[in-house]
Amino acid sequence: MNRYKKKVVLKKESEEFILPFIIPSKCKDLNAHFIENPPKRLDYSAIFGNTNPIEIEVGFGTGKFLTSAGKLFPAINYIGLEITRKMVQHVANQAHDGALSNVRVVLCDGRLYMKYVVPSESVSRVHVYFPDPWTKKRHLKRRVINQEFFDSAYSVLKDGAYLNLYTDHKEYFEYFLEQRNIFGRFKDTSDMGFYTPTGYEQKWTREGRDIYRAVLQK
Fold first, then answer.
1. Which of 2, 26, 84, 163 is most exposed by smallest CB count within 10 Å?
2. What is the rounded distance in angstroms from the CA atom of residue 131 to the CA atom of residue 179?
3. Which domains occur in the chain, in start order?
4. Between these two residues, 216 and 135, which has the higher pLDDT value?
5. How many other C-beta atoms can be found within 10 angstroms of the C-beta atom of residue 44?
6. What are the distances in angstroms from CA 107 to CA 87, 168, 193, 212?
């Protein structure tokens, strides 16, 4: 659950940092809808005006990683996928204020977006940091990590590219490793790339909580 409580007003100038994605209302089966009505795949050159490497963050929250990476690495293009409208607007404002021309955000389900909109074998790294573990049994289906996620991430990653997953929740991390083993097509690696701790992670570390990290390679 997102805990960001500040009111967010999307600036008119920030709208250009949000990529359009239409989710049909009252649709019970989004997979069936997008199979029957396939959206256009992303054209990175048209979006960013260059052919720089692409990295994707799924569930970017307050956007600390996304905006920090965008500022430090202008030769990499970053696309953030987030299901909370307020956070999409918040990070779009940040991208505008920071003149981060290499950052775009999308209001969407990250799994569906990677499956139907992101071109195959076009991404250098997928980032997933501290997703909601959804610990109650009736909520397990809401977890972003499942076999559909692994299939979508594997499809969009280039050969040799990476998937990062960090969490403070031991049971969720064990679940992630279990799902990885079931999927069976990634290998473990220690190449975590660039990362900047979120405010929550810094707080948890001060409290002595363990942080669990996995980096997988295609």
1. 26
2. 15
3. 12-217 (3.40.50.150)
4. 216
5. 20
6. 9, 25, 25, 27
